[in-house]
């Protein structure tokens, strides 16, 4: 191959440098990248409270009955990393109270809301609805319209208290049919469900594939879905209220997430998972 002349090489090099300079000039003139604005997390509260059902008192998670130290909301045990524990890392003076009661339906939520307001809670977590669907028979389930009104009354009370500064977090209801799916193959679960009479609207005759039983289970889960839609709607209409976006309802929990004392309530691991799932959805977890 014939060698290129010195003049040709210089000419080629000059052209390349000119092209590079032009390219750099174009880059320099490009519009600067503008960072997306970030939403700052809300300032931590001085006091927080939990209202709702057995879910918020960690029922049957460490033994029979309430185990509030393992509550996803206000729990004190370090292994849990509850909402309260996370808030304490920012405000060590945080005061907490848990007014949730096992077995509570939407009809009892307003009384708990009044307690949270009297406590002066600046942050209130709410879980409600499972007991409205988990009844001895499907005929006993709370009507969705009634449920909606009762929840709205409670949230209105909280929103009006404490100078309107209280932030509310509403958790969706777990998938009740999933409890049946996870536990129905275990003899221990079936025995406990039958002898304790727990959530018979869903858990009666767990191995039956009869059309009536399939329809019954579907009806219960459909009602839970209606309750979740109502919770979202009511929260959207309430000042300073944050809905979890269906995070808890959508979570496909496994056997390890369930207490082996009743195969219905969350285990300690399940409570920890609830805390981890819901925290990013709160005004403080941004």
UniProtKB/TrEMBL annotation:
Name one molecular function that GO assigns to this entry.
hydrolase activity
Q: Which domain of life is it from?
A: Bacteria
**Ranges for domain SGNH hydrolase-type esterase:** 75-272
Pfam families from the UniProt entry = Lipase_GDSL_2
Query: Mind listing the UniProt keywords for this protein, alphabetically?
Result: Hydrolase, Signal
Q: Which PROSITE patterns match?
A: PROKAR_LIPOPROTEIN
May I ask which residue range the UniProt record assigns to the signal sequence? Answer: 1-23
Under InterPro entries, the record lists: SGNH_hydro, SGNH_hydro_sf
What protein am I looking at?
A: SGNH/GDSL hydrolase family protein
Native organism: Agromyces seonyuensis
